[in-house]
Amino acid sequence: MSTMQKITDFKDNSLLIVDDDNPFRERLARAMEKKGFAVSQAQGVKAGIESVKSKKPAFAVVDLRLGDGNGLEVVKEIQTSNPESRIIMLTGYGNIPTAVAAIKEGAIDYLAKPADAEDVEKALLADPKTKAQPPENPMSADRVKWEHIHRVFELCNRNVSETARRLKMHRRTLQRILSKRSPK
User: Fold this and answer.
1) What pTM was estimated for this model as a whole?
2) Alpha helix locations (H) across 55-180?
3) What is the pLDDT of residues 62-74, one digit of tens each?
4) Domain 7-125 carries which CATH code?
5) Which among 23, 39, 70, 165 has the fewest CB atoms less than 10 Å away?
6) What's the distance, CA 70 to chain centroid?
7) Which residues contact 175 (CB under 8 A, 6 or more apart)?
8) 103 with 110: CB under 8 angstroms?
């Protein structure tokens, strides 16, 4: 199992958080500062890349979907400027292809939103040579299914008929699923 290092084990404790969800980013930044990180924040791809160029962070938490582009662009910039940095990808739309792309670009882990500060800290400080510990409270199978259906729905520009066709389900069944609240 994974052994977690301490932030004091690192000479550089700089952490860049790139997320366009302001309340989430602010909350995570405050929590990570309490854990000993020197936090800087960016709201989008452009601001994230500018921040990386001015100060090469040792750690980064980057949202995959940002208002002005894809978080993988920020990951590439971080890897170019500091190949030793530890990067975590965050997204509300967790799926295997984007997880693989994030890892190929240099991320060390991939967390689904809403991730709390404990999960982020564990992922950032885990020993990269050992297997990561399973999450304390992972999403339920129903929640994963719900997230996937909503992601496809958004990618189909909220077109119910097109989404139903791509998911190979009846349109009315899809409408019933979309009208319900997300499972826990």
Assistant:
1) 0.69
2) 72-81, 96-105, 117-125, 141-155, 160-167, 171-179
3) 988 888 888 888 9
4) 3.40.50.2300
5) 23
6) 11
7) 160
8) yes
